[in-house]
Amino acid sequence: MTVMRVGIVGCGEVTQIMHLPSLNQLSDRFQVTALCDISAKVLDEVSSAWNVSNRFQDYRDLVKQDDVDAVLVANPNAYHAQVVLAAIAAGKHVLIEKPMCMNLREADEIIAAANQHPEVVVQVGYMRRYAPAFAAACKQIPDLGPIRLARVHDILGRNSLFIKDTSKVVRADDIPQEAIVENQQLVDQGIAEAIGDGPPELRFVYSLLLGLSSHDISAMRELLGMPKRVLYAAQRQGGLYLSAAFDYGDFVCQFETGIDSIPRFDAHLEVYGEERMLRVQYNTPYVRNLPIRLTVTELSEEGGVVEHTEQPAWGDAFVAEWQAFYENIVEQRVPKTSPADFRKDLELFVSMVTLMRN
Ligand SMILES: NC(=O)c1ccc[n+]([C@@H]2O[C@H](COP(=O)([O-])OP(=O)(O)OC[C@H]3O[C@@H](n4cnc5c(N)ncnc54)[C@H](O)[C@@H]3O)[C@@H](O)[C@H]2O)c1
């Protein structure tokens, strides 16, 4: 097996808890050869803990390295586009944490760059879509018959509630003030370009859509296809709670999300047919290897109800995502979570925010 050499840009929470352990588990396929973080403290401690000697504080230096075949982009959202473009230009494969970028202009630049470099695989890190239980649900959709209703639900406690008792994370508390200001300016500009002017709660909504909801809405699209339009969208509690309805013609998909202080993670997708329904249930990604399950509930031959729950494989969705990335590189395939696929999420987010203005 060819071993892909990976350089990581951004060594914070998701890299420390999810990506480095996943890459370590897949050491027959991947070797981490370079790390980059703007925080000297994070860079130093994470590189030492994982025994990586090539360390950079500027991503432009990392993407130039000859011993890097693929780049993981896991720094703050507002920097994703520039890092992805630099990595593609340097001829490196790229796995980008969601959101791929902040707005449609950046998405189109990445799509154009990826089209100019078809030898390079560019995959968006929607790991929930690589979970075997989700793939099993997608396969079973045609057997449901006409869909009557669907539901996408994501209510969870803040990430810190899960992390504090399960992981140790080295925090970037030494980032220079000008870098903090620059990041905030890039966030503000990126959001303004996406949705125009608006009250703070709408800017917060857009950030929540890019962050948490992009998982839910992209999974909805893979399971059910692209909706015809957004029927309604509303926000409450300063943008922390969202609900929306997506029009699929013969049925409507309800969406609801919110973040509270109960340390539980309830993210699920439900699809209702006449005699059978499917439910994919996710758990927090911050505790590795928690089961992701598909439950099928249906009318039995005897006129009763049969329910069965499957967990097609043990393992973590982040590992499944890296396995798919590897196969996409080796087989020169365009990932299902491609830049063009991500663009569809941005289109829906802009429609949702537009409806929330009314
Ligand atoms: N797939 C998922 O479920 C999932 C979960 C969490 C986070 N994420 C995504 O991963 C990314 C990182 O999230 P996180 O929670 O690890 O954040 P984090 O704040 O914990 O880590 C970000 C790291 O990037 C570093 N950084 C900041 N600016 C930088 C720059 N210009 N160049 C290089 N490094 C820089 C910081 O010092 C920090 O160590 C985000 O895009 C986030 O949306 C995805």
What report would you give on this structure?
- It is a single chain.
- This protein has helices at residues 13-25, 40-50, 59-63, 80-89, 104-116, 132-140, 159-163, 177-195, 200-224, 317-330, 339-356, and strands at residues 4-9, 30-36, 54-56, 70-73, 93-97, 122-125, 149-157, 229-236, 241-247, 252-260, 265-272, 276-282, 293-299, 305-310.
- It is of the alpha/beta class and 358 residues long.
- A hairpin with a 4-residue loop joins strand 8 (229-236) and strand 9 (241-247).
- The mean pLDDT is 98.
- The longest helix has 25 residues, at 200-224.
- An eight-stranded mixed β-sheet has the order 8-9-10-7-11-12-13-14. A six-stranded parallel β-sheet has the order 3-2-1-4-5-6, sandwiched between helices.
- The protein folds into two domains: 4-127 and 321-337, Rossmann fold; 129-316 and 343-356, 2-Layer Sandwich (Dihydrodipicolinate Reductase, domain 2), CATH 3.30.360.10.
- The protein is globular, with a radius of gyration of 20 Å.
- Helix 9 (200-224) crosses helix 11 (339-356).
- It has eleven helices and 14 strands.
H and E order: EHEHEHEHEHEHEHHHEEEEEEEHH
Number of β-strand runs: 14
Could you describe the largest sheet, including whether it forms a barrel? 8 strands, mixed
C-alpha geometry: globular
Radius of gyration, CA atoms, in whole angstroms: 20 Å
Q: Mean pLDDT, as a whole number? A: 98
- Measured between the Cα atoms of the first and last residue, the distance is 55 Å
**What name is given to the CATH topology of the largest domain?**
Dihydrodipicolinate Reductase, domain 2
Helical stretch tally: 11
Question: Strand sequence of the main sheet, in spatial order?
Answer: 8-9-10-7-11-12-13-14
CATH class of the largest domain: Alpha Beta
Any idea what the CATH architecture of the largest domain is?
A: 2-Layer Sandwich
Per DSSP, what share of the residues sits in E-state strands of 2 or more residues? 25-35%
Instruction: Kindly give the count of domains.
Output: 2
Low-confidence stretches: none
Bound molecules: nicotinamide-adenine-dinucleotide
Q: Spell out the CATH superfamily of the largest domain.
A: Dihydrodipicolinate Reductase, domain 2
